[in-house]
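Progress note, sequence design subtask.
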């Protein structure tokens, strides 16, 4: 049995997220994102390259929650797929791509925050915050 996986990427929010509606009235989030790239040099060091920018979209509840929580500069990790499409520019079809995020969240390696769990998911031994998790792990 193979592990079911999805395409993922990590980056940062480059433009203010916009929440609109699709033709059928579903929420749609759009933002330009930046993806940092580095080149490994022969001496083992890394050179930071210009970031790659692209469109990120999300739909439905994920779109609404991302719109509430993400701001320009926030680092994220997203899982989803690439949507290839065309736009009409002066009578010519121009190919475009966007990353459709089915799942998106802040990048734990670059973001500090508190977790507020739903009541059904909380138990007496579940840490409420990252600090509590450390304290809980130390006490075990």
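Output:
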């Amino acid at each position: 049995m193979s592990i079911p996986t999805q395409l993922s990427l990590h980056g940062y929010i480059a433009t203010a997220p916009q929440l609109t509606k699709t033709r059928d009235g579903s929420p749609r989030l759009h933002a330009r994102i930046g993806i940092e790239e580095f080149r490994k040099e022969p001496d083992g060091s890394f050179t930071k390259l210009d970031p790659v920018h692209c469109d990120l979209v999300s739909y439905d509840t994920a779109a609404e929650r991302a719109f509430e929580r993400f701001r320009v500069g926030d680092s994220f990790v997203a899982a989803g797929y690439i949507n290839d499409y065309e736009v009409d520019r002066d009578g010519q079809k121009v190919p475009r791509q966007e990353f459709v995020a089915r799942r998106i969240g802040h990048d734990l390696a670059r973001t500090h925050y508190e977790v507020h769990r739903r009541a059904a998911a909380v138990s007496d031994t579940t840490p409420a915050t990252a600090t509590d998790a450390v304290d809980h792990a130390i006490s075990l």
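The beta strands are 7-13, 18-21, 27-40, 46-59, 75-89, 92-106. Work on this subtask will continue into the next period as scheduled.
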